[in-house]
Amino acid sequence: MGEISEKDFIGFQNGNEQVFKQIFEQYWRTVFNYANGFCKNRDDAEEVTQETFTKLFLYRKRIADEQSLLPFLFAVSKRIAISFFRKKIIRENSVADIQLSIETVSYNTKETILNNELNNALEKIIAELPIQQQKVFVLNKMEDLSYQEIADELGISKNTVKNHLIVASKTVRIKLQKLLYIFF
What we know:
- The chain is mostly helical.
- The protein has two domains: 1-112, RNA polymerase sigma factor, region 2, helix turn helix motif (Rna Polymerase Sigma Factor, Chain: A, Orthogonal Bundle); 114-184, Orthogonal Bundle (Arc Repressor Mutant, subunit A).
- It is 74% helix and 0% strand.
- It has nine helices and no strands.
- It starts with 5 loop residues before the first helix and ends with a helix.
- Mean pLDDT is 78; it is low at 94-114.
């Protein structure tokens, strides 16, 4: 696949779905391999890659030019992977290990400005989940609660929370990927 032209890049910044699809197809494998280098786990790397392309879509107007696409994707996927890894380590009570691996990196998804179309699609996908999976997904991904905090709030076991989250995350990821292919 060829490079993105300046004209196509401007179209991408303005929301051109075909150009976003071209960028996604051109860089997906590269970003996935980069994320996999951090995550060492295919499912985690896929999740990081998917979130990276969501951020690309959301922040597309902030990218200076077509040459800045790959550096942006690398920087965002690294931050997401580090954040993901940090949360995983903290939940496993290994704060010391993460402080040795990572200096000060903070990535807060609550600060993300969501695009209306993507936000509506995500809300619809979440609404289609079974009720308990919806609750667990929203509490973990949107409100950033730990498995234990969710278990306490919902009156279920930590393992049940984990199982619901695994299934819900996979369902949301698959539906978002299908949606990206359909729309873009």
